[in-house]
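From the shared-data thread, chain only:
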Amino acid sequence: MTTDVDYTEISKEGVIADTERGYVPGFGISLSVMKNLIVENAYFAFQFSQLHGETNYIGSSNQFLPGILGPTADAYGSVRQKNSAKFVDFYGRFGKGFELGNSLMATPFVEIGHHNWNRRIDSEIPIIAAFFPGNTTSKESYNNYYYAFGSMLQYSPIKNLVFTTTAMVGSTFSSTMASSGTPALFVTGIGQDGGPGTLHLGDSVFYKVGMGFDYSFYQSCHINASAEYIGFEYGRSEMTGPNKTYYEPDSETNYLTVKAGFGYSF
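Structure, as tokens:
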């Protein structure tokens, strides 16, 4: 699987502060069950995925080197570099299937999940590297939970082949950003003492749409492929830092994920 990452931060003045874009590869494991349990055609699903790679960062820097330099830059586009990125996601679903004829089934469900993005920003500004050789890294860990209500529509035109479309809408909650890094000068200073800390971010509408197919090619062996689009936002944090001068800006996140895999039915 691979995800096309499209992330944009927007300052309180309404201008773009920085963006991160790129294709990040990874893997996923999923399990789904539909059985007559508590209710007829009870539907359960679980998925875990992990991506690791690089994104193309375009941003700005207003790093101040005390007693040495003033701001090195302050405009969007003044910094362009590659950043390391790691994404870890999981979700669970519960729903009920309704047969709409011999080849069509609709399954409304509720989904609850968690998203984590570990964003590593290595300074590549030449003058900073000259004064601070070695590793100058700021790490930001974005986390949020979400819930969504949706429906899955499955259509089987021929034996062993099933097409699936899914759509859902809900909300993020418990959204945070935690900072860390080395040396302390380059850590996103969101703590009261100007050091590392954790900020609470605003929640937003969460939506996901997808489509795919599954084909049973030999007994219980399946191949499958799908694509899904996810969108949500992080709201601006409170002002923080020693002089209440730092904030985490509003941001927009969009992911387009393409998956291909192998399955086995029991």
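The longest strand covers residues 137-158.
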